[in-house]
Amino acid sequence: MSELDVAKLISVEQACALIDAAPASPRVARVPLADAAGRVLAEDVLCDRDYPPFDKSLMDGYAVRSADVRAGVVLRIAGEIAAGQRPTRRLQAGQAIAIMTGAPLPPNADAVVPVELAQRNGTSITVRDAVTTGQYVMRRGGDRAAGTRVLSRGTVIGATQLAVLATVGVCRPPVFARPTVKLLATGDEIVSVRSRPGPYKIRNANSVMLAGLLRSLGCDLIGEVVVPDDRKRLRSALSRAAVADLVVVTGGMSMGQYDFVPGLLVELGFDLKITKLRIKPGKPFVFGLRTDGKVAIGLPGNPVSAYVCALRLAGRLIRRMQGLPPEPTWITAPLAEPLPANGPREFYQPAVWDGTSVRPLKWKGSADVFTLSVADALIVRPENDAPRDKGAAVQLLEIPPC
Questions:
Q1: pLDDT at residue 4, as a whole number
Q2: Which of these, 13, 45, 68, 366, has the minimum number of CB atoms within 10 Å of its CB?
Q3: Of 345, 333, 350, 329, which is closest to residue 388 (Cα–Cα)?
Q4: What are the tens digits of pLDDT across the range 251-295?
Q5: Rounded to whole angstroms, how far apart are CA atoms 81 and 98?
Q6: What angle do CA 321, 322, 328 make, to 5 degrees?
Q7: Which of 321, 342, 357 is the last residue of a domain?
Q8: How far apart are CA 3 and CA 371, in angstroms?
Q9: pLDDT tens-digit map of 287-340
Q10: What range does the domain containing 151 cover?
Q11: What region does 122 belong to: left with phi over 0, alpha with psi -120 to 50, or beta?
């Protein structure tokens, strides 16, 4: 590719700006708590009451009045309180009440003596040391006060966030709806993964790969279709696919005789903001918008190219469609071995990241899904990057698990 041809392509930075400028108004839905893991909160969540809702013992021991306690003092045991029980007795001078971890303090008590620091003698205890006010006590509202924000809009719900939602009684949290996606793969050479391919055919690995990636990014896949290189049938399939929020097509993007997708998207009302990128692998990439809010993304037919563009660019849009910041989390890591100079396109190289250094993998181009399958990151290098020595810092884009 000549320097003039490369200059006509859109940079990845420009493509990100165009994607970020596209309208993205996430819908809000309420889902059962059991289905909320991995979803993105659409509203702040507030405490429904003080936590704890009472002065709480932090230890198994004895509730006391700190003013009564000195080293060697003997206190009479006046009762017992377990977690979940309501105190029925007010603590009097010279008394102690046995108390369990998590139980509410009785009225007039202001400290707890742990069982380890008291000697029980039938109906009384001997305390070894003095105590201070508030010792081993969590005051009412000490964790969070009523009305306090405990989870923020935009939080991805994980196991610990589920615990917070359950604690404050949110049974159907408000989340951003997952964008719906229809996935199309084009090409006369593609056959089902269940088929024994002929000598000039290939199994439909792209759809399986992209379906897994799109789900991991938070999409609801509402259908996968394989369409041959037939203009009429492809137009019909694209038209039907536009019921989804996002139409993703792989193959048919370049300049060949059977690369119909960009032209058909224009016929179907999509304004193509991007058609070619300065990225390797993955130059043929299409991003189109329609006035009804539908979005079309066209990915290259080669699997590594399709994956890189989907992760880097489609992922950016999908994050915005779920109320998340568009930019992925980047990692900076030292190279485990040197790299030669880069070409004029932003370069994404499969690599293995062990938490200490990153090792670039030797690969055989944009169709080499075998090497991609053992990578857990992509080394991202800017256009015309100089040679990098062993130990030089590079940026990584993590490959998410499905």
A1: 46
A2: 13
A3: 333
A4: 887 666 657 899 999 999 999 999 999 999 999 999 999 999 999
A5: 6
A6: 90
A7: 321
A8: 29
A9: 999 999 999 999 999 999 999 999 999 999 999 999 999 999 999 999 999 999
A10: 34-50+143-176
A11: left
* Contact (Cβ atoms closer than 8 angstroms) between residue 380 and residue 393: no
Asked if pLDDT for residue 3 goes beyond 60, the answer is no
Q: Is 40 in the same domain as 158?
A: yes
Together in a domain, 385 and 298: no
Q: How many helices (H) and strands (E) does the chain have?
A: 9, 26
Q: Token digits for 135?
A: 């010792």
Integer-rounded Cα Rg, in Å, for the chain is 31
Q: 231 and 305 share a domain?
A: yes
Is residue 82 located within the same domain as residue 152?
no
Q: What is the CATH number of the domain that holds 345?
A: 2.40.340.10
Exposed/middle/buried for residue 387 (C-beta within 10 Å: 0-12, 13-18, 19+): exposed
Kindly report whether the global pTM for this prediction surpasses the value 0.85.
yes
* Assigned token pair, 25: 């108004």
Pair (292, 366) in one structural domain: no
- How many angstroms separate the Cα of 366 from the Cα of each of 24, 38, 58, 160, 340? 31, 31, 59, 40, 18
The number of residues in the chain equals: 402
In the predicted model, what is the mean pLDDT of residues 19-24? 94
How far apart are alpha carbons 220 and 372 in whole angstroms? 24
**Mean pLDDT of all residues in the chain?**
94
Final residue before a domain boundary, out of 107, 137, 167? 137
**Alpha-carbon span 234 to 65, nearest angstrom:** 81
Choice among 66-75, 121-130, 185-194, 270-279 with the minimum mean pLDDT:
185-194
pLDDT digits 0-9 by tens, 335-371: 999 999 999 999 999 999 999 999 999 999 999 999 9
Alpha helices in 194-333 (DSSP H): 205-216, 231-241, 261-267, 303-309, 315-321
- Are residues 317 and 183 located together in one domain of the fold? yes
- Asked if residue 1 has pLDDT above 60, the reply is no
Do 184 and 297 lie in one domain? The reply is yes
Give the CATH number for residue 104. Answer: 2.170.190.11
Examine the domain organization and report whether 44 and 153 are in the same domain. yes
Domain count, the chain: 4
Which pairs with CB-CB distance under 8 Å and at least 24 residues apart come from 266-269? 267/235, 268/235, 268/238, 268/239, 268/242
